[in-house]
């Protein structure tokens, strides 16, 4: 019997507009009403997760597993990047628009206008202008910009994001990550982004931590994901599912492929699982 359900957001739980709509919101409420526990498992920071009213009854695994929060959005567990390595990154890559992410804030060494301009230029081919403007305006409120190296080092930085376009030469960053592969890991959710965390941090380890915290066995956990940062999670649990729209790697890692995410396959599969468990 499944007691804990963990799901990625974009390309998995959320609709085709990357949003939680009424069907998803009500579905999460039904999960909780059935006495089960639901957590998101996302690369996003907690302030970028909007489950509407369902957000008050869900747990949060954020930043690819580097932060775990309770339904009141209180921090339960955090895995920050080693500050010595962090300092080295800021020295070596001062020329890159890196984003330094704590469990509840994003820090940048450039000004807000430059952040918006850079993000829009990188993503201009990936989304329509109206959606992109709305999305960027929502995320920029979580930024603290023009931060010095010293100010950033005072924070517990859990994740480093780097967004880049197709023609960007990323070999220097790749070489650095190879040199420090005992300290850092990159698990991008898709193309055009680096998502760097402490080595050993991933969604699988965070789901396992939360399950232990809640006294739930591994066999009582079901996980859902579709992308590169979900592979470890999908391969680590017996009950693992990916939408048919997921990546090739996700399909290989999951125990079962379900319907396309835009057809609400994840929330429906969870609710069907609960109903099947009742019959046992």
From TrEMBL:
Q: PANTHER family, from UniProt? A: HAD SUPERFAMILY HYDROLASE-LIKE, TYPE 3, PHOSPHOSERINE PHOSPHATASE
Instruction: Identify the PROSITE patterns for this entry.
Output: COF_1 (PS01228)
Can you name a GO cellular component term?
Answer: cytosol
Does the record carry Hydrolase as a key word?
yes
Which Gene3D superfamilies does the record associate with it? 3.30.1240.10, HAD superfamily/HAD-like
- Taxonomically, the superkingdom here is Bacteria
One GO MF term attached to the UniProt entry: magnesium ion binding
InterPro entries, per this entry? Cof, HAD-like_sf, HAD-SF_hydro_IIB, HAD_sf
Q: Which organism is it from?
A: Faecalitalea cylindroides ATCC 27803
Task: Report what the protein is called.
Answer: Cof-like hydrolase
Ordered alphabetically, the record's keywords are:
Hydrolase
């Amino acid at each position: 019997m499944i007691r804990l359900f963990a799901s990625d957001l974009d390309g998995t739980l959320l609709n085709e507009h990357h949003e939680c709509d009424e069907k998803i919101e009500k579905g999460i409420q039904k999960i909780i009403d059935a006495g089960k526990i639901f957590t998101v498992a996302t690369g996003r920071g907690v302030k970028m997760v909007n489950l509407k009213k369902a957000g008050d009854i869900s747990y949060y695994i954020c930043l690819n597993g580097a932060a775990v929060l309770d339904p009141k959005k209180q921090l339960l567990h955090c895995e920050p990047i080693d500050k010595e390595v962090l300092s080295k990154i800021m020295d070596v890559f001062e020329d890159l628009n890196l984003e330094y992410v704590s469990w509840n804030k994003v820090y940048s060494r450039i000004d807000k206008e430059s952040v918006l301009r850079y993000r829009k230029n990188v993503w201009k081919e990936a989304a329509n202008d109206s959606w992109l403007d709305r999305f960027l305006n929502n995320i920029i409120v979580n930024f603290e910009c023009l931060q010095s190296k010293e100010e950033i080092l005072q924070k517990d930085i859990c994740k480093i994001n780097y967004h880049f376009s197709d023609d960007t030469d990323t070999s220097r960053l790749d070489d650095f990550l190879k040199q420090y592969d005992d300290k850092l890991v990159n698990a991008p959710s898709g193309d055009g982004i680096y998502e760097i965390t402490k080595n050993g941090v991933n969604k699988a380890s965070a789901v396992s931590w939360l399950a232990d915290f809640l006294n739930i066995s591994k066999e009582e956990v079901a996980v859902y994901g579709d992308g590169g940062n979900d592979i470890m999670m999908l391969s680590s649990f017996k009950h693992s599912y990916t939408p048919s729209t997921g990546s090739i790697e996700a399909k290989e890692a999951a125990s079962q492929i379900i319907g396309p995410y835009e057809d609400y396959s994840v929330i429906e599969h969870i609710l069907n699982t609960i109903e099947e468990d009742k019959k046992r």
